[in-house]
Amino acid sequence: MEKYKPPYIITDKILSYVSSVSEKIGRITATADLEAKPHLRKNNRIKSIHSSLKIEANSLSLGQVRDVINGKAVLGEQKEIQEVKNAYAAYEHFAEIVPYSIKNLKRFHGMMTEHLMEESGEFRRGEEGVFNGSQCIFMAPPARLVPQLMEDLFGWMKEAQDSVHPLILSSVFHYEFVFIHPFSDGNGRMARLWHTAILARWKPVFEYIPIESQIEKFQDEYYEAIARCHVEGASTIFIEFMLSQIDKILDDISTQISEEDGQISECVKKLLQVMDYDVPYTSKALMEKLNLKSREGFRRNYLSPAMERNLIEMTIPDKPNSRNQRYMKR
User: Fold this and answer.
1) 314 pairs with which residues across the strands?
2) Burial class (CB in 10 A: 0-12, 13-18, 19+), 235
3) How is residue 114 annotated by DSSP?
4) 83, 191, 239, 317: which one has the fewest Cβ atoms less than 10 Å from its Cβ?
């Protein structure tokens, strides 16, 4: 029997992104030691967990997710709080992931879904569809086919790991995994976790890069890319989408490192310190937090430099002077 090979085409766009991402990750690895930045590492891990769960309709805010992880009491649905605890446990054991082992995959699915479902750590036995909100994107393959489909996928990965670039292999896996939909719940979370694990085998720094947060920003495009691949019968579009998002998140990581390394002004540092994630602020509110009186001085020394470095974004970017304008920490 001929061995399974997932269908996809290597386009010029894919090659361009592979080159760009490789260059950026090389520069980050050479100039920054994330192992020596525990605060940055933990913050990015919290962002990964929050975003991956938010994509799956978990309503807890980034601050609430941080509080759950830090052991604080949080008002919210018990199921959603448990999802955070489970995801944190899985990410804390990240170094134990063996990307090419189905047994290991099931073990981590068990961690991710503990106390949440009966089939935790086991392939589904019923039929499932993939949904974006209330919209059914497609119906997954029959449950009876799942074990063989997973054997085929993991068999291909093992064989291709030395010949297919990890950036491409991880994206192909992500799409194929979502298509197979091997578990009755938690497939999206597992696909994103495993995607990161494959990349971390290539460049360990990926363990601390919140790819999930970038996907969450472009969630509609994420589902659209998956749906288009279903129609075309190949993962090419999804590979291009994922590589574009990884390329973008690396720019944000470079900015974070610059901030940590003191390459931004003290004024911008102070501004970032008074802002929480996921909270929109008026310029007046930020000036009050900083005890500033001069609006012009605030914009010149604090707001504009922060926005130029993509540390802060406007809630209404196409109308910068809107009276309803707010500013959020990226």
Assistant:
1) 327
2) buried
3) T
4) 317
CA dist 79 → 42, 53, 75, 90, 279 (Å): 23, 12, 12, 16, 24
Q: Given CA atoms 41, 242, 101, 178 in this order, what sign does their dihedral have?
A: positive
How many angstroms from the chain centroid is the CA of residue 310?
A: 18
Structural domains of the chain, with CATH? 12-260 (1.10.3290.10), 266-329 (1.10.10)
- The whole-angstrom separation of Cα 253 and Cα 41 is 11
Asked if residue 272 lies in contact with residue 50, where contact means CB atoms within 8 angstroms, the answer is no
Write the pLDDT tens digit of every residue in 54-102: 999 999 998 899 899 989 999 999 999 999 999 999 999 999 999 999 9
Residue type, 58: N
Beta bridge partners of 329: 277, 312
DSSP letters spanning 120-143: TTS--SS--EEEETTEEEEEPPPG
